[in-house]
Every structure is written in C-alpha cells, then in structure tokens.
Amino acid sequence: MAAETCLWAAQAWVGGRWRERVRLDIGADGCWSAVEPDQPAPAHATRLAGPALPGLVDAHSHAFQRAFVGLAERRDGAHDDFWSWRERMYGVALRITPTQLRAVAAHLYLELLQGGYTQVCDFHYLQHAPDGRRYDDPATLSWALADAAADAGIGLTLLPVLYERAGFAQPALRDDQRRFATTAADVLALQRAVQAAQRPRLNAGVAIHSLRAALPASMHALADATEGPLHIHVAEQTAEVDDCLAATGRRPIAWLAAQLPLDARWQLVHATHSVPAEVEAVARSGAGVVLCPATEANLGDGLADLPGWLAAGVPLALGSDSQVVRAWPEELRWLDYGQRLQQRQRNVSADPVGGEPATAARLWNRVLAGGGAAAGFTRWGLQAGARADLLVLDTQDAALRGLPASHLLDGLVFAAPARPFRDVLVAGRWAVLAGHAPAAAAIGTAFDDTMAALWSAQT
Ligand SMILES: [Zn+2]
Predict the structure, then answer these.
(1) What is the whole-number distance in angstroms between the Cα of residue 222 and the centre of ligand 1?
(2) Cα 372 to ligand 1 centroid, rounded to whole Å
(3) Around ion ligand 1, which residues have CB less than 5 A away?
(4) Measured between alpha carbons, how far is residue 185 from residues 26, 188, 266, 408 in Å?
(5) 180 CA to middle of ligand 1, Å?
(6) What span, in angstroms and rounded, lies between the C-alpha atoms of 101 and 448?
(7) What are phi and psi of 234, to 5 degrees?
C-alpha cells in the first residue's frame, strides 16, 4: 500500500508516555525525519484514525513452530514436559520443505503484524534438507523466511544458529537434529549472504543454540567475528542448569558471564533460571534478556526473576518463540500475571517509587527499548531516526470503548482479549490498513494447503 510522508495523531506514545497532537514526518529512507508533539495538523497530513503506539520487536521466534500450534495440547503418556514436546516438534522440523516453511512463516508474520509486532527476530536453526544434505544454496531456508517476511510486510532480523552437538557430553548431533548442523563458519557465511542481499527491512545477526549445543571455541569465534545481535537460549530448563553445573561447575548464566565477552550485542533468551549474582553479572555486562512468557508457561519452563531483572536495569525484550501467542499485549499480561500468581500481589512490575505506577507502561517502555536493541537497531519507536513503524489503536473495539485516553495502554494489556490494532505501518508503508492486509487471502490459502499437506501424512 502507498507510502506516507506526513502523519498526524491526536494521541501518540512518544518519549515513554502519551502525548497529544503529534506530527510524524517520514523521510525517503522510510524512517521518521521528525516526531513533534503539540503541533497542529498540517493540511497535507494523513490524520490517524486512533491513538498511535510504536510497533514492537518480537525478539525470539521459530517460525516453523507455527505449524505445530494447537497440536501438542494433549498428554499421551504419564509425563509431558519440554523434552516430550521437543520430540513432537522435531517431527515437524524433520519434514517441512522450503515452500512449506515460506507459507507457514508468511501466515505467522501476518499474525504478528496484526498482534502489534513490526519486526521479528527469527532464531533460525533449520538449515538443511530433510535427509540432512545441504541445499545447493545453503541459505535456501533463510530465503524462505525472508520471502515470507516480504510477503507479509514485516521486518525480519534473521539469526542463523550455531548448532554442533546434542549435549555437553554428546559431541555429535542426534540423527533427528541432522537439519540443524552448522559450524561457526557456516553461521557467519549465512549472515554475510543475508546482509549482502540488501533486501528492504531485512538484517542479520547470529545465534548460538544453547551452551549444551555449542563448543566454547565456536562461541568465541562467533563473538569475535560479528558486530550485530548475538542471541542464545541460556537457561530455559532446570535440566539444562543441572547439566551445565555437572559439565562446567557453573550455572549457565554464570558460565556465560565468566567465559565469554558479554556486552550489549548479547541477548539471553529464556534467562528463566537465575540467581541474584547472575542477574548482577548480566547487568554489569550490558547484555539484554529476552523473555517469552506464553511459551515459558506453555512448556512448563518456570518463572523468570522478573523483579530482579527490572530492578537491575537489564534491557528486556519479548519473544513469541513457539508461537502459542502472537500478540504482545497478552505476552505483557502474562509477564506480570506469573509474578502475581507466585507472590499473591498485584501490579508487581509497577514502580510507584521510581515514578511509574502503571504496570503496563513500565513493561512496555522496557520491552520497546530492549526489543529494538535485540534486532540491532540503534533507534526504535516514535523518534526521529527510527524506522517509521507504528500501530493505530481501534478505540471502537468493544474492549477499549469508554476507557479514558490516559488508561488505553492499561486496558489494552490487561483487559482486551483481542488484537485491537486497526492499522500497522512498517517503514512508512501500511502493512495493515483498516484491519485489512493486501496479501491476507493468498497467505491464508497457502497456509491451509501447507497444513493439510504437513499433517495428512500423520493421520
Ligand atoms: Zn527458542
């Protein structure tokens, strides 16, 4: 849809709070050239149909897992946990084709746009053909994701993943991990290929699957060779913590902080199991933490020390991860609800002493800034120099009607079951307008056909 040059919002989230009468100018590069509150609407401006929020970065996604959503919610044995879920997830990972991946990812990315995300970091470890052989172009599945992002109109940070072994004491991969095998050199080559393509709204960092799945020398090689975002699954499961303690004598976050040059490039995904000294070490390093509340609940991972991470000032970001939830308001809701259930208190994440009594606003401002950094952006949000992304709230949505303007974010996060984003702007272009995305019908049909093909063989 058409590129905009000047927008005007009666209300917009600027500088961490609602401001009124905001003029937003878009440069030829698709970034905000000026964002100025308290301005009259210029005659040539497009007036937004509702209050404007910045788009959010989804800092942790495995797109192919969208094909599996809703299909793992039945227990078929005496025990069901992360590891039994992983066995089922591998079943999809082992058979999805590049064309199917594109169709699944495009459907997911459109849902993410409608759920308020305008950029997604895909932690991409599915690299090879189903039999484990390399594609002629090793980036074949990376292009499937990049094409899917272009189909939907979302920005993509591709994170090719280092995946070398099955565990601390298992130097090789399991046979059912054959599509994941990479070395540090492979990962850097994939990153270079993506960057060299110079596609719009596409950038690349690198990732390390986990401490158990990578050799220390390879992790050092990646850290030495890359400037962009560097993501790692760090401490999702207590079994991982136990294995790391047994293999190295340290807990995962402690080992990482002691052995690798942690800094602001690093994003610690699922920093679920931590002790206070680890939180302090991460805070000193400048590294960020990515939490995925809905997935961590769905997989029974455990509850992160959210109050600790917040108090230490560690950058925080949100991820949709296994894709059970694809909208950030619900993720933010569960971020605080987990703490409320555990502590038997309300508004655990609010900070009235520090000047932010609103739980939603405090969490939202933290994940906005942390998400931008996790995707490699130096500026993010409604500010000059940042990419021209925004969300227009539908205040006629049943859940938001009647709320005072000052409490719209609170209502959106804690009392709106749907995704009341009317319009979504990415890099100065409307990806969703009046609830409509241009490619939605084609993307939906391709997804239906793909799901039928993927699952018909299983029944
Ligand atoms: Zn993950």
Answers:
(1) 19
(2) 18
(3) 321
(4) 39, 5, 19, 48
(5) 14
(6) 13
(7) -110, -45
Element (H or E) spanning 445, and its range?
helix 440-456
- What is the predicted pLDDT for the residue at 75? 83
pLDDT digits (tens, 9 = 90+) for 165-199: 999 999 999 999 999 999 999 999 999 999 999 99
pLDDT of residue 335: 97
Low-confidence ranges of the chain (pLDDT < 70): 1-2, 457-459
Annotated active-site residue 407? The verdict is: no
Residue 19's alpha-carbon distances to 8, 15, 417, in angstroms, are: 12, 8, 25
Long-range contacts of 255-264 (CB under 8 A, 24+ apart): 255/211, 256/211, 256/232, 257/281, 257/282, 257/285, 259/216, 260/219, 260/220, 260/223, 261/223, 262/286, 262/287, 263/287, 264/288, 264/315, 264/373
Distance (angstroms) between ligand 1 centre and the Cα of 257 equals 20
Determine whether 270 is an active site residue. yes
Residues 339, 207, 165, 90, Cα dihedral to 10°: 70
Q: What is the DSSP letter of 5?
A: S
One DSSP character per residue, 304-336 reads --HHHHHHTT--EEE--BT-S---HHHHHHHHH
> For residue 215, how far is its CA from the centre of ligand 1 (angstroms)?
19
Distances (CA, A) of 427 to 26, 216, 249: 9, 38, 47
Tokens 């490039």, residue located:
265
Strand blocks (E) in 334-416: 390-393
182, 206 contact by CB (below 8 A): no
Q: For 309-320, write each residue's pLDDT tens digit.
A: 999 999 999 999
The vertex-239 CA angle with 234 and 243, nearest 5°, equals 80
Cβ pair 363, 349 in contact under 8 A: yes
Residue 2 pLDDT: 64
Centre of ligand 1 from the C-alpha of residue 295, in Å: 9
Q: Which of 270, 305, 394, 397 is catalytic?
A: 270
Beta bridge partners of 321: 61
Q: State whether residue 430 is helix, strand or coil.
A: strand
pTM score over 0.85: yes
Beta-strand relationship, 17-26 and 32-36 = antiparallel
Angle at 388 between CA 382 and CA 390, to 5 degrees: 65
C-alpha distances in angstroms, 26 versus 74, 107, 369? 48, 28, 21
Question: Pick the catalytic residue: 25, 151, 243, 321?
Answer: 321
